[in-house]
Amino acid sequence: MPDNEADYGDHEAEPQDADEVDELSSEALAWQLLLLINPGDEETALRQFSVYQEAAAEAGEDVEPVWLLKDAIDWTSGFFIDWKDTETFIDSVTELVRRWNLEIDWGGDPSDEEFLQGTDIPALMSTAYDGLRERGYTLWTWDTGSDSFGGWITLSRDDEAMRLVAVAMNIELRPGSDSF
Length: 180
Hints:
Blueprint: H1 18-22, H2 26-37, H3 42-59, H4 65-73, E1 78-82, H5 86-98, H6 113-117, H7 121-133, E2 137-142, E3 148-155, H8 159-168, E4 173-175
Antiparallel strand pairs: 1-3, 2-3, 2-4
Helix pairs in contact: 2-3, 2-8, 3-4
């Protein structure tokens, strides 16, 4: 939780332009990202921010903030999945969208081994992206620099704010329809 809300400006406000984002500290940017990926759920954002702050204090400046955020948000507001683990990807995204009482039509039975073996995470991510866009949400994926996929979901109306925060945090981010 921010020690002093005044340090972060209006905690509900989103950055409006690149200059405004550039002026924010790493901690303030992490806070903005958490607000974006937890729309309407400031309590979860605060809990995750506390975890992020503790991890940042332990890690020092040697770790990119996205890696600290990854651990703070995993399975609540974000996913981080091995490149071939289609079943866990479906389970994770299904859990994420339950927050908004949504379901995703995966184009097959996600419990069917044959379906899972006949698809891959980029195809599933694109399916989830399309289904979520229809409901006003955007599935994002970030470049993990590894064989894993990471990402989160925001309101579609916050797409530009998410892009600005990602650039300021040096996170290479793409919509789920165009995974890494």
